[in-house]
Amino acid sequence: MQNEPLAYRMRPQTIDEIAGQQHVIGKDTALYKMIMNGHVPSMLLYGDPGVGKTSLAFAIAGTTKLPFIALNATKAGKKDVEDVVADARISGKVILFLDEIHRFNKLQQDTLLPHVENGSIILIGATTENPFHDVNPAIRSRCGEIKQLKRLTTEDVDVLLKRALEDPDKGLGKTPIKITDDQRLKIADASNGDARKALTLLESTVFASFEENGVTVVENGTLDSLIDRVGVFGDKKGSHFYNLLSALQKSVRGSDTDAALYYLAHLLENGDLVAVSRRLLVMSYEDIGLANPAAGPQVLAAIQSAERLGLPEARIPLANAVVLMCLSEKSNSAYVALDKAISSIHSGKTGEIPSHLKDTHYSGAKELGHGGYVYPHDHKIGTFGGWVNQTYLPDNLIGTRFYDPIDAGEEKRLSAIYNKLEKFKKEK
Fold first, then answer.
1. Residue 281 and residue 246 in contact, taking contact as beta carbons nearer than 8 Å
2. 53 with 196: CB under 8 angstroms?
3. Is the peptide bond before 405 cis (omega within 30 degrees of 0)?
């Protein structure tokens, strides 16, 4: 067993050994009570890598003593599924743990799902992707429980590290190891809530440390060099990546500069400069908008600079763009107004274009009744330029208001002009 990775050896055997996830499997939860009473529902476990999806499935099996089979949906074929069905017929009931269940194909489903429905196979699926986006509805409908596992806290991870250092059978307890509380907590912090990563880092640190008088001594320099190699969790196109993009935008919208820079750092460490740049440009118009019309061109310039520079230097103009948007006045009035107009069209609120706005650049337009447009530039109005009071909306939409300006930044000036023109219209 000692040849197996520490993270594998330290996998919990029962649900009482699970670290963290108290919202899912704590002693007061319905799921805990069901399992302790011998009932295991089919379920989907959703969460980032290393949060304990596989461990929870193994612990459920260990608690109930039910036959347990683990498959990966990317590798399992129809024959593997048929073998599970055969085992269920012999045993009466079996737990099937299916990792990466979002990759489950239709042929596998057709073979398995009837047996999940009749209860002979208890399906526990695990996925890093949002099950409501990526898991087939046929599977979701047969899983009574959909549980989102959270990243472990530093305290949760530290419990696992202590357990691994003390356990003489599965862990490192047979080896005298000198490691300080601060060093252990540093490992817990560096894991970013990923139990597998933490245990792997601990094991690597121990094997990289020197031995003195029969005791393995962990040095800060060794630990720090290994921590530098720990990757950022998440991938470029998974649910976590899109959650990072969402968190970045919401932090900018909420004017929290430090949070926005934190999420930008995560995204850039994942290396997808194109997706990050695209989101920043959208934000400059969606969230800053007319309150600071200069933001859009400034963010575009930062993005173009970043693309020309490439990473890691690209982080510099992008950091400027994010701080600028965080601390800028904000308005979403323009695109909200457009969405209202789009919604109006979709709901059937359309009308005939006024005759004076229709195209007249062809012979016969006059005979069709087109014409009568008054050219606003010929009617000066103070320093505004030109304006004339004429109808632009279809007759049945006259008076409809889509745009609702706000008094923020530059839009405060635009709002005053808009309201003044609205007043002129009513004086017609």
1. no
2. no
3. no
Find tokens 């129809």 and name the residue. 78
Q: Which CATH class is domain 21-148?
A: alpha beta
Q: Residue 45: name the closest of 55, 53, 33 by CA.
A: 53
- Quote the pLDDT of residue 402: 93
Q: What is the pTM of this model?
A: 0.60
Is a pLDDT exceeding 50 seen at residue 1? no
The SS3 assignment for 130 reads coil
CB atoms within 10 A of CB 105: 13
Of 160, 211, 215, 208, residue with least CA distance to 187: 160
What is the second-level CATH architecture of the domain 154-227?
A: Orthogonal Bundle (1.10)
**Going by CATH, does the domain composed of 239-326 fall within 3.30.450.90?**
no
Residue 220, phi then psi, degrees to nearest 5: -60, -40
Distance, CA of 23 to CA of 12 (rounded, Å): 18
Backbone angles phi, psi at 11, to 5 degrees: -60, 130
- Higher-scoring residue by pLDDT: 321, 368: 321
CATH topology of domain 351-426: post-AAA+ oligomerization domain-like (1.10.3710)
Per-residue pLDDT, 229? 58
| Per-position b or e across 124-155, b if 16+ CB within 10 A of its CB | bbbbbbbbeeebeeebeebbeeebebbbbebe
Instruction: Classify residue 171 by its DSSP letter.
Output: S
CA dihedral 89, 90, 94, 97 (to 10 degrees): -80
Quick: pLDDT tens for 78-115: 788 888 888 888 888 889 898 988 888 777 777 788 88
Which residue, chain included where needed, has tokens 């599977």? 139
- Look at residue 366 in the predicted model and tell me its pLDDT: 84
Give CATH 1.10.3710.10 domain extents, the chain: 351-426
Q: How far apart are CA 52 and CA 149, in angstroms?
A: 8
Per-residue pLDDT for 288 more than 90? yes
